[in-house]
Write a structure and sequence with these properties.
This protein has 74 residues and is mainly alpha-helical. It contains 3 helices and 2 strands.
Amino acid sequence: MMDLVAELRALLGADAVLEPEEIRLRARNYWDPAPLEARALVRPRTTLEVSRIMALCDAHGQTVVVHGGLTSPR
């Protein structure tokens, strides 16, 4: 996983890939304020970046869990 995280940082920039310590500052969801747990959280800026992230994760056999911005009222 660490090689994948390094590749994601190289692809997107260090500010687009959050570390576990930063991720735990976020809530799991709107209804559950428990800390979000993940090895990495990637914040793409464009659809092209999303496509490249997905291709890279696929090449590594890495499962992807989509987590929205928690901005919807529902």
